[in-house]
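Quick one:
INPUT:
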């Protein structure tokens, strides 16, 4: 899924993944509010960008700059000027600036969720290994079609890559960013369609 991730409520685990952070200044409360306001307004025009949707994007693709990438991918769209106007009206000097800050806001929110969710902590601290995947595959029914078996293997390896990357990412979110985002979690979860504590998100790796 590409641009529609920016315009529709999304779960943390359906494609939100960020790389390590090398930032010169921590997020401020105003940064977070501006991002939330942008997301709400952008979501309202999401139907205009539905043609950029891509449900085939693999889970283990590297959206370390997901919002920045989505902004970049939307630049050739006829309705991009509306996106640009919303972003600038909410205090960002450019769509690129919005994308960079939004990436950090969502990463901090994910880090908070993990801190507050023992199941998520367990999943991230117990990464699946290639041996785990091989053992699971060996226990599949022997008469399972080869194509289905290959799909399952690909999905499992993608999920393992994703979870391992998330684990590393959570460790790199600056504490200052977390403190800036924390007071605004309710508004973020409302936009994302999650419960107030983010409990609709599922980081389970049960296979």
């Amino acid at each position: 899924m590409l641009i529609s991730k920016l315009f529709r409520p999304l779960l943390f685990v359906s494609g939100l993944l960020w790389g390590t952070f090398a930032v010169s200044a921590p997020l401020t409360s105003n940064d977070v509010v501006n991002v939330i306001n942008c997301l709400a307004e952008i979501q309202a025009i999401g139907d205009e960008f539905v043609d950029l949707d891509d449900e085939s994007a693999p889970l283990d693709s590297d959206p370390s700059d997901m919002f920045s990438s989505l902004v970049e991918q939307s630049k050739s769209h006829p309705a991009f000027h509306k996106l640009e106007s919303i972003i600038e009206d909410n205090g960002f000097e450019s769509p690129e600036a919005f994308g960079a800050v939004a990436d950090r806001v969502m990463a901090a929110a994910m880090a908070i969720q993990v801190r507050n969710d023992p199941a998520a902590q367990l999943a991230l601290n117990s990464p699946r290994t290639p041996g785990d995947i091989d053992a699971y595959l060996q226990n599949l029914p022997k008469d399972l079609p080869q194509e289905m078996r290959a799909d399952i293997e690909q999905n499992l390896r993608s999920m393992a890559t994703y979870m391992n990357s998330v684990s590393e990412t959570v460790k790199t979110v600056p504490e200052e960013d977390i403190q800036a985002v924390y007071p605004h979690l309710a508004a973020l979860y409302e936009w994302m369609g999650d419960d107030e504590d983010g409990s609709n998100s599922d980081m389970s790796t049960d296979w």
